[in-house]
Structures are given as structure tokens and as C-alpha cells.
Amino acid sequence: MTWWRVVEGGVRLSLHIQPGAKRTEVAGLHGESLKLRLAAPPVDGKANEQLVAYLAAQFGVPRHRVNIVSGELSRKKLVEISGVASAAPLFAE
């Protein structure tokens, strides 16, 4: 299994999130997930909001196309982004 796969209408990402980092960035692989560091703290949904905003910006899509499928309260998340065909924008990090 890879950390991303094509699903109907978009891509699904398996992510490992590290909130409270110095800056928001891709940190490499963490097992079979892509590790993202987020500058936002894990309080009151701020890290999830920053995750959605970061992914929307990286993929050039509106925020409503980024959906946290599972793991909203966990570091391990499944995220779907509709309207894209690959996870290539994250490879450039």
C-alpha cells in the first residue's frame, strides 16, 4: 500500500500529522503514511483547519474539496481531495 491512491473523483491520502511544529511542511514518510508537520496546535480543531487549508493550497482546489474521512481527533488521518488525479503537488516538497 502507498500513502496515496486514486479514488472515484479524486485522491485519498494516508497522513500522519505532527501538530505544534515550527512550520507547516511535508516531513517525509512515516510507515505507510506521509508525515506532515503543522504549525497549528492540536486545540479546538486548529490543526485540522490548517491541514485542510494547506492541502487545498498545495493542490490548488477550494477548501470544500478537502475532506477528512477519518481520524479527525487522531494524528493518523485519511483525507480525500476531490477534483485531482494524483498527489504530485506534495512530491515537490
UniProtKB/TrEMBL annotation:
HAMAP family xref list: UPF0235
Question: What's the protein here called?
Answer: UPF0235 protein PZA18_09180
Originating species:
Parachitinimonas caeni
Similarity comment: family membership:
Belongs to the UPF0235 family.
